[in-house]
Amino acid sequence: MQTKFLSMKCKSILAVLFLSGATLGYAQRIDSEQVSFQLLKEPLNPVDSQSRNFSVVVNSPYNMTKEDVIKEAKEKFQKQVDNYDQSVQDAKLQHEERLKDYEAEVKKLTEKYKTESEQYNKMKAVEKIAMNAMPPVLRLPSRPQLNVPQKPVYRDPDLRSALIVDNKVLASQVNIDGFSRGGNAIDISINMERTNFQDNAGKSFASQPTKLVVKQNGAVKIDKILFSDFEEIASSPTNEINLSDHERMYLQKVMNKINEILADNFGYSKINSTVKLETVKNKGEYDDLEKASIYVTTNLKKLQARPDYTPNKAALENMDKGITLWKDALKKINYEDKKAAYNAKIAAYLYMNLIRLNLALGKKPEAEKYLNEMQEHLVDMKLSFDQNYELKGLEQKIYN
């Protein structure tokens, strides 16, 4: 009887193990890896490597040098010296006027105190108690003091905060990575006004209309007006902020924007990037997906941010092999069967990989295409909180 019981117990354990094994056969283990790579950002208007040079002309109302700032500081100091005696005299006259006002106020308060004291002293004790009357107190204002202005002392101006700039300095701030200065393949013309300030609802606003015209081998490639609209620069009115500091910062903002436009249109820049890629680790059923992961991650790491770099072409072609395997796998997805080898969980990781990778490579239209496909099946995928959070972040990158 005991032997029969043990036999039945062993069979039950084996059955449980068999069912567990069958269930595990459909459970996919998905791992992730942060892949670092280099990317060469190519311009909208490529320029032949032999012709990457530029010239720039700036026309602006700015014409302030270091010497001009020092000269202005000394002139201001000399004006203070010349006006010092008069400022002392003015201070004395103002003091005399305040004394007259003070003496008149003291006389008025003293007379009031005298009148109130006489009225109080005429009251009987019973009346004072009944009326809760208190004896009057004479409170006089402080006597005004003579504030003689201090003699002016010259201090060197803070050149770090001074707006030391002229057309040559502004032209020197224009730059295109990978280009040399002095040629005329790219001809840049900048015409700017001085920063305009304006108050609105207790806040400070600024604008600085700037016309940017760029020609490539004589053909106009850029012709636009920048910063013509007022934008908020401070939550306080203009009379409470340092206008010189804000003008310097706003002018730098204009120059930064110009360089950004030039970089987008003509410059080659190196981008060091990292992208999260996932892969399913189960053997056998997912060998193609493992192969796809190797194709993509290995060749992504091989990319070099160098123009006309021949190995990049081979790396991209091999990456495409892995991407094709991902896309082929999506055709096998069975969204209705959770136990299917290629189920909604596999689809989620494949779509996320395709969206992440295309975004990292600067291919927003491709990323958006896979996002749209994925959104059609989101109900079936039942993403985790972390996956939903990441997907929202990817959407913002695509649409912004």
UniProtKB/TrEMBL annotation:
Q: Where is the signal peptide?
A: 1-27
Q: Does the keyword Signal apply?
A: yes
Q: Which stretches are annotated as coiled coil? A: 74-126
Print the keywords alphabetically. Answer: Coiled coil, Signal
**Please, which domain of life does this record's source organism belong to?**
Bacteria
Q: What is this protein called?
A: Acetyltransferase
